[in-house]
Write a structure and sequence with these properties.
The protein is mainly α. It has two helices and two strands. The chain has a two-stranded antiparallel ribbon with strand order 1-2. Helix 1 packs across helix 2. The longest helix is centred in the N-terminal third of the chain and has 26 residues. It starts with a helix and ends with a helix.
Length: 84
């Protein structure tokens, strides 16, 4: 059962991280100078955006790739810390 407790700790840490990131994104515009720092999210090369008269489509492919790499590194570091 010790394996389950370490997995639980990892999930709690990941949940806290997601909540903090969510709060940062929600309240980022209200902090002076911080909203412009987050302006790259959703506007990277590779993000697909199609706008027509009665239709719009947006798929953040480039942003998804960057966030995937960053989150993979974070989870790798967290698992490395819990293995020590």
């Amino acid at each position: 059962m010790e394996d389950w407790s370490s997995l639980g700790k990892l999930l709690i840490a990941a949940g806290v991280g997601v909540v903090l990131l969510g709060l940062l994104l929600v309240f980022g515009d209200r902090l002076s100078g911080f909203g412009s720092w987050l302006g790259w999210i959703g506007r990277l090369p590779g993000d697909i955006s199609v706008k027509r008269e009665h239709f719009s489509f947006y798929f953040p492919l480039g942003t998804s790739l960057v966030l995937s790499v960053v989150l993979s590194l974070v989870f790798y570091l967290l698992s490395w810390l819990f293995r020590r």
